Amino acid sequence: MAIDAIRPHLLISVWLAALSIVSGCRAPDLSDRTEEEPPQPSTEILVAAPRTSSQLLSGWYPIEHNSWRWTAGKFAVLLRPPIGAAVKGATLTLHFTLPGIVISRLGSVTLSASIQGSRLAPQTYRTEGKAMYARDVPPSSLSGNTVRIDFELDKVMAPGEGDTRELGVVADRVGLEAK
What we know:
The protein is of the alpha+beta class. The protein has helices at about 5-25, 85-90, 100-105; strands at about 45, 55-60, 70-80, 90-100, 110-115, 120-125, 130-135, 145-155, 170-179.
């Protein structure tokens, strides 16, 4: 490299060093820092976690008691398929609670889901308490960086008694598990 090519860089370095000595300040050491990457979508969402709330697309009500959310009759989520899911498939799980008031008013509820437009088998729930919806998802539905999952309940509690929301289930987490 020619001296003329080095000279401007050398002059700038000397000038910056002199400036820091005169001003008494030092340039911050940025050698250990990296450019921040945007967060990647998760394969599992705790519905009360603020960092994944952007993956709750529609039909989700605000967080209650710092741990769960009511859903509407139709609700959707965006998930990242687990590694290898495009070859092996995955298992979709929704963990939720059916409050006693829902069962006493509706008798039962049937939950169904579709992923990327492919319908998964429905399941009917007749008792109150903790429940889980789990269905195998074929590899053909899991290509791409993210997949949209739409859930639908056959019945919901209509708005009433001072609450303007249609209430479905009390959800606490949803995810895709590797097979």
